[in-house]
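Lecture notes, unit on protein representations.

Consider one protein chain, 74 amino acids long.
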Amino acid sequence: MSRAIPHEVMLKVVRRDGQICQICHQPVPDNQVEFDHIIPWSRGGPTTPENLRLVHSECNRRKRDALDELLAED
């Protein structure tokens, strides 16, 4: 299983999400676009349109930091 996101999958996610961050619900400029695995790739989440969402780079970083804190508590 690859973490790399195929171009056609990226296009599907961008079209579906309408260039709106799925965390903060604000428009995402082209230079801040990232794709977030809803079920983390590290936990077996697939790199499919159904498991990806478009997010700001900053929102993605905050989500990752919060997840790291939760995992550290376990």
